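Hello,

Following up on my earlier ticket. Below are the six sequence lines again, exactly as submitted.
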Amino acid sequence: MNDCSFNFPTAGSKLHPELANHRKEYGMRSKAADKHQAILDAAVKVFARKGFFQSRVSEIAREAGVADGTIYLYFKNKDDLLISIFAVKMQEIICRFRDAIALENDAASRLRCLVRMHLAGFQSYPELAAVFQVELRQSSRFMREYNKEELRQYLDLIGEILEQGRKEGVFRQDISVGLAKRFVFGTLDELVSTWVLAGMQYDLGSMVDPVLNLLLHGMGRN
Amino acid sequence: MNDCSFNFPTAGSKLHPELANHRKEYGMRSKAADKHQAILDAAVKVFARKGFFQSRVSEIAREAGVADGTIYLYFKNKDDLLISIFAVKMQEIICRFRDAIALENDAASRLRCLVRMHLAGFQSYPELAAVFQVELRQSSRFMREYNKEELRQYLDLIGEILEQGRKEGVFRQDISVGLAKRFVFGTLDELVSTWVLAGMQYDLGSMVDPVLNLLLHGMGRN
Amino acid sequence: MNDCSFNFPTAGSKLHPELANHRKEYGMRSKAADKHQAILDAAVKVFARKGFFQSRVSEIAREAGVADGTIYLYFKNKDDLLISIFAVKMQEIICRFRDAIALENDAASRLRCLVRMHLAGFQSYPELAAVFQVELRQSSRFMREYNKEELRQYLDLIGEILEQGRKEGVFRQDISVGLAKRFVFGTLDELVSTWVLAGMQYDLGSMVDPVLNLLLHGMGRN
Amino acid sequence: MNDCSFNFPTAGSKLHPELANHRKEYGMRSKAADKHQAILDAAVKVFARKGFFQSRVSEIAREAGVADGTIYLYFKNKDDLLISIFAVKMQEIICRFRDAIALENDAASRLRCLVRMHLAGFQSYPELAAVFQVELRQSSRFMREYNKEELRQYLDLIGEILEQGRKEGVFRQDISVGLAKRFVFGTLDELVSTWVLAGMQYDLGSMVDPVLNLLLHGMGRN
DNA sequence: TATGAATGAGCCTTCATTCAT
DNA sequence: GATGAATGAAGGCTCATTCAT
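Thanks for your patience. The regenerated structure is below:
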């Protein structure tokens, strides 16, 4: 378990192998995929810096080193850019998390792994945190029209761990996995939101153990 | 101490007597003050509904039942409208809080009163909460140019309670009131922010006692 | 022939008795006439200072010490204000000039009197000069719709002097009064325009004799 | 010396070869330069027709055959459009004048050339005359903020001729070139202004010889 | 595929004019 | 008559999006 695996994929990082199908979906060669990635990363930076509504498409283009029009070859419009940040980054996150979790065996270790990666990931990529926790929630398009498939997948990932824990007998049998996975996610999400709103001034990583204690205590067999 | 006093002044509410000087400050008779108020309340609604950048001045005007141009008789521009929401509502809040707190005697009761009013107030006026916790923080004008005098006054109000508590011997003598008042405000502010970001789905009021416990435990003589 | 008679009626000056019919025409008592006058004088000042299009009706009202709406009790609109400056001031000018000219006997003296008053008048009321020579010529309404009855009257006044001069034998018999009066006016008008455009930096009065020489030489019997 | 060289560059005219650096300065290829030129020429027309304040940016756009927004790709704002007319047209004028003057040898011929081109140029492009002599002087932005570098260059061009004349012994040695060049320009400028204000009804060209007489007489060795 | 010049819909703001008091 | 708060039409300007090259 290396440090790298704790970070979210950022500007320079190569695409995870499992994301090959994502490329196929968009019919991209690696060069095109690079540009797709560059625009997305530029958008994260600019959105985080200025906020969605005060970000200019032309500024994102400049940041990405492409022409304004090029952005519209990869994304439908400015809204789509924001929503794609969520979709793509979440897919990458889910892949990385799945891989990392697969290296652990028991449910408790896997939960610890997920919590650690969630908090460390946002801490190491604060611009993405700002976009996820602030900008996306202000986007009426995102909140109303987008079905957040990736969020469901992430919740499922958590659910799988909880299910395993119940089977292992580590977690209480009477727990509702459907509710509990939302509880786990909600806790992590709130932690990151609070950290963002507080100006990202403290260390999120130090909260891993307390949060795990809380979660395991709440769901555990006592 | 009635429930009403726990709520923030909203659209329908009459101006507090102590706010007479506010009217004088702006040189308004009651009719102009009514319109000033109506526009401000309309702006709170629309900003909360759409967000600042997607709110149209004309929509605020329609909501307030005035012509577009009328808004500019009372506010310098759209930015000023947002900043004025903070300034005016905070002044009203501070007045109400001071009055309510004056009815209590000891510092602990007063702190309880303030905490209760802070949480209940935002809960009863969720649109104001959205503007205070989300829109204002995105306004670069607000963050950079406005000195937030009213915030200082609110912090002072908290400071006075803490000072009293130290004199009463309820709070530790070695506490820094300057820091502690920020700690108290920061805690309340974070609670409300988290509640807003979470979609205002749970009851803020239920957090009064836990928060007080936390605060009193942290500052108390043990 | 006193100096005062060389000046155009300005802010403080009382209305000429012959303007009584002007008052009647507008059905005004002296108080209303005063206000009418005050607004007109204020408009001259503001138009001269800022130019017509950059002058605000509210600024004219402030300068005149009346409410914005009051202006519309005396003038149809902003355009009418500009045109009325011309009409009213010209009427006053014509009256004063007629009176002064009546004190002279021969045509040459009368022409000298008119030239002197024309140049001295604008020099002593530079704001009116700016409005007459610059603002009015930019007003499409004035240039297209207004028939400039007062200009005709002024030309007639000049024509009468020239006619007399021809009868006296001082001016050539073969002169066309219709053309010559335009020539006289055109010369004076150009002098004042040039003076205004040059920033009113030199003395218009010093041009009385050269101009008279030119005019008399051109029209005289040699 | 053909007639064409006496005219100012107007809508249809090709850019002078020496203006290639102007294109470079703005980093424009010929197509962009064409559009820049088209907008400028349209602005001259519309400003001359309606006056600056009554001209609509959308009307200039229509006249130029471009969209409203296109204007803002080439000019900062409406004010900049007016000031650019002066800057660009003056640069072109200075180039043309320098070329034409270079074909003459002695100072007197060169001064005659300049006077002739100045008067003939404005006569052949009356819309530019209206903008130069009327609209620009009303623009507070132009009068206050713009340093009129091109005017200095034009004055310098005149100064060079006068200097040469002094060396040739045609002009008096005791003449101050610094003042005399202003005198020459002022005379020409006043002539054109008067002509514009008078409705451009007479022939400016006929004034070349009288003006030259005046200038040469005033500055000459007698 | 990539470009970036061109587009034009839309919004904030101003200010001449009106009208209830 | 006098007021000045209110009106709302109109215009300068921005910027997401398109499309000819």
